[in-house]
Write a structure and sequence with these properties.
mainly alpha, 3 helices, transmembrane, Transgly_assoc, membrane, cell membrane, transmembrane helix
Length: about 90
């Protein structure tokens, strides 16, 4: 269990950092927010992988993805976050 938590933190940090580097614009996020972005992205990537390929690694519908899926999911989550934040500050 501890290994899973540590790996989720490390994958989350890597995926969140790469997503922030690929998405244009400046995102004001702390390291903790970047890790959470990557972890959320991992689950989004797992969900997309399940929906596209219609099978999983026995983890069910809601599962973490590998690094590529985590990066893709993190980019999607970051784009949504930027859009919501922009709409909130525009009003």
């Amino acid at each position: 269990m501890l290994g899973l938590i540590i790996s989720m933190i490390i994958i989350g940090l890597i995926a969140g950092f790469i997503a922030r580097a690929l998405v244009p614009g400046r995102q004001h996020m702390s390291i903790l927010a970047t890790i959470l972005l990557g972890i959320v992205g991992s689950f989004i990537g797992g969900l997309l992988g399940f929906l596209i390929f219609q099978h999983d690694a026995q983890d069910g519908f809601f599962q973490p993805a590998g690094i590529i899926g985590s990066i893709i999911g993190s980019i999607i989550a970051l784009l949504i976050w930027v859009k919501v934040r922009t709409n909130r500050t525009a009003h």
